[in-house]
Amino acid sequence: MIEVRGLTKRYGDVLAVDGLTFDVEPGKVTGFLGPNGAGKSTTMRMMLGLDRPTSGAVLVNGRPFATFAEPLREVGALLDPGAVHPGRTGRNHLRVAARTNGVPERRVEEVIAQVGLGGAAGRRIKGYSLGMRQRLGIAAALLANPRVLLFDEPINGLDLDGVRWIRDLLRQLADEGRTVLVSSHLMGEVQQIADRLVVIGRGRLIADATTEEILDGVGHRQVRVRSPRPGLLLGRLREHGLSVQRVDAHELHIEGGTAEDIGDLAHSLGIPLHHLSEVRQSLEDAYLELTSGSVEYHGRQAERVATTTEGAR
Ligand SMILES: Nc1ncnc2c1ncn2[C@@H]1O[C@H](COP(=O)(O)OP(=O)(O)OP(=O)(O)O)[C@@H](O)[C@H]1O
Ligand SMILES: [Mg+2]
User: Fold this and answer.
1) Where does residue 67 fall: left (phi above 0), alpha (psi -120 to 50 degrees), or beta otherwise?
2) How confident is the model over 281-298, as pLDDT tens digits?
3) Hey, which residues does 173 pair with through a beta bridge?
4) Which ligand is nearest to the CA of 32?
5) How far apart are CA 18 and CA 11, in angstroms?
6) Interval between CA 309 and ligand 1 midpoint (Å)
7) Domain map (residue ranges) of the chain
8) Pairwise CA distance, residues 309 & 199, whole Å
9) Residue 204, exposed/middle/buried by CB under 10 A (0-12, 13-18, 19+)?
10) CB–CB of 297/37 below 8 Å?
């Protein structure tokens, strides 16, 4: 369990995290979503005591992280997969981590097997692909068998197999009763993995709910019908307070009602329908709608790309 209470972090003029309050519950995968610069990594660093809050607090299993005598047994984290000694082998990296944290050496081989690092464990980390580094970082997080796991953008750079593997692993960890928080700036990645979503933008909480609730809350339901007598139907639907748009000679798009409502109404009026369907806004659209206005570099992308290209010359 992680309890975030009024958490705030200021770096000079930048308010990176702005009064966040939410819980991350055990037995579930919680997706931590927000556009680039939203404050996800900063929040996770404060959960791990790597950064001090300007105000507010985080409790991990009921206590501040800093008060644990053996913190790695409480929380495992994948923050920056690049932060490893490149000259070591993956296995040695894990052995050092095990030794310094009082973890029995046999765990090293267990986690190597668990993350599928296999033969690569004997090679130097500098020769690792991004996917191998991610797996090694996850192995390190799992080493002390912690009840709480934080993964910051674990899917970045993984191929389809890797993504599927992470998804299964996170599910398994949550099913074992662990608290699992996984951040991403990509909705599509998290939507299939997470039971709950905490969405932030510009350091502030935008949504904290189940994936399904988020869809229902912001997602528009649109009903599409085709009829040989669309004009008559359009008039009647508007009389019933529905918002109707005529798309072409036969097709209407309706908001404010369900397919059942509209099918029943057409039937009661004797208006034939040749097509009736309900279209839901995708979670991706819902996310964009939630975070629009909170994207830090909104509309300045072209300018940034131009600057980067200049700099590269
Ligand atoms: N050490 C730091 N010093 C100054 N500003 C910082 C520092 N760390 C983060 N920031 C700023 O805080 C804000 C939030 O950054 P953070 O890295 O937490 O975002 P994020 O949600 O993890 O983004 P991304 O998806 O790009 O990883 C940004 O404006 C960032 O520039
Ligand atoms: Mg980040």
Assistant:
1) alpha
2) 666 777 777 777 665 544
3) none
4) 1
5) 11
6) 23
7) 2-216, 220-280
8) 32
9) middle
10) yes
In this structure, which residue's CA is closest to atom 25 in ligand 1?
36
Quote the Cα angle for 60-65-68, to 5°.
105
- The predicted-structure confidence for 154-184, as pLDDT tens digits, reads as follows 988 788 888 889 999 999 999 999 999 999 9
**CA-closest residue to ligand 1 atom 24:** 36
Closest ligand 1 atom to residue 34 Cα is 21
Residue with tokens 């009903």: 223
The residue whose CA has the least distance to atom 3 of ligand 1 is 11
Angstrom distance (rounded) from CA 134 to CA 27: 23
> And the tokens for 10?
């200021």
Residue 63, strand partner residues? 60
Task: Give 17: exposed, middle or buried? Use CB within 10 Å, 0-12, 13-18, 19+.
Answer: buried
d(CA 74, CA 97): 15
Class of the CATH domain delimited by 220-280: alpha beta
Question: Residues in the chain, how many?
Answer: 313
φ and ψ at residue 20, rounded to 5 degrees: -80, 135
3-state SS class at 91? helix
**What's the topology of domain 2-216?**
Rossmann fold (3.40.50)
> Does the pTM of the predicted model rise above 0.85?
no
The number of the ligand 1 atom at minimal distance from the alpha carbon of 40 is 21
Of 8, 42, 151, best ligand 1 pocket probe by most atoms within 8 Å of the beta carbon: 42
